[in-house]
Amino acid sequence: MTTLRYFSSEMAGSPGNTSNVVGTTSAMLDACLIDGFVPQGISSMSHDGTTVTVTMTAAHGIPKSAVMTISGANEAGYNGEFVVLVVDATTLSYGLVQTALANATGALLGTIGGAGWTKPFAPTNNVHAYKTGAGSLSRFMQLSETTGLYSYACHGYEDMTDSETGSNAFAPTSRLARPSSTSSKPWHILATENFLYIVTNGHTTSVALYLFGDYNTIDAADPYATLCFGMADLANWSSFNVNSNSLQGQIARNRLGVNPATLQLMTHHTCTIKIGSGTMTYPQQNDGSFHMAGLEVFESNYLKRGTLDHIFSPLHLPTALANQTTFDGQGDYAGRRFIYLQLRSMAVVFELP
């Protein structure tokens, strides 16, 4: 079973991501994929049978929908991973339905845990190798945190023997955007043990998307259901536009299992690679609602390979909602919570835990 986790640069203890400072992008990935954020002290915890109320020792900066790990409680029922439901500056709560627990005792800590990936090799020459976690196809994402304008090479390997050496590379020209100024810029990450989605704010008006990991294959016998999708090898942010060739990627191998396949991401509503760039008016005139669709994975020539979880393409113009708007789903999406993220000339929706 995978655990969906949401991280952002606004969370307390999260690392910054700064242009021209080697190590900040890898620190962001290390924290979200592997190590988690610096543990924060808890002064008290109480349980009323359905809800645990946690009082932190200081302002915590943990948002609603974050997955927090509680540790150090002498009462074992308090320890574990929980989705934060309600927050204010110094307290938060999460659901826990069981026989009432006594107030927690012990050296209590709350941590935003990592997504369960590993880093099997020590980085060399500012090159880092990240491996997807338990239950995945165990693919490698290589980040080359070396000289580059506005982005770093970040692509896939089926296997690796050290941080710089691998076999069966795919998406060799895909890149992970980084800020274009010396100040730290906002970022958002959605991850499980199997995949990673990143929205990175770089240039003043430009925000880019990067995806890596396993998708839901329509063929249970397909052992190559891993994709990598990011910025093309562009000189600068000014030409980044979803309606051009600014975003590109590959699937680890084609349906014949031979070579990497060109990746196409589409919705069944649009059959286009221009994800996040719909034309419907908002609010929708007949019912005042917001509409979005899941993403489907194709290789070239419109051969469907599978679908992606937890990421959606708005069917409206990118400015339909304000950036970072959170909302509760209705209809088919009832009981689920989402965040709307504007990119340059497009937008995406992440499902929150």
Notes on the structure:
- With 353 residues, this protein is mainly beta.
- The chain has two domains: 5-10 and 116-352, no CATH class; 38-112, Ubiquitin-activating enzyme E1, FCCH domain (Elongation Factor Tu (Ef-tu), domain 3, Beta Barrel), CATH 2.40.30.180.
- The protein has one helix at residues 24-35; strands at 5-8, 40-47, 51-56, 67-73, 80-83, 86-87, 91-95, 106-112, 127-131, 140-144, 151-162, 165-170, 175-177, 187-191, 195-201, 207-214, 216-217, 226-231, 247-251, 261-266, 292-299, 303-314, 325-328, 337-343, 346-352.
- The strands form three sheets. Strands 1, 14, 15, 16, 17, 18, 19, 20, 21, 22, 23, 24 and 25 form a 13-stranded antiparallel beta sheet that branches.
- A hairpin with a 3-residue loop joins strand 21 (292-299) and strand 22.
- The longest helix is centred in the first third of the chain and has 12 residues, at 24-35.
- The protein is globular, with a radius of gyration of 21 Å.
How much helix is in the residues? under 10%
- The assigned structural class equals mainly beta
Percentage of residues in DSSP E strands? 35-45%
Tally of structural domains? 2
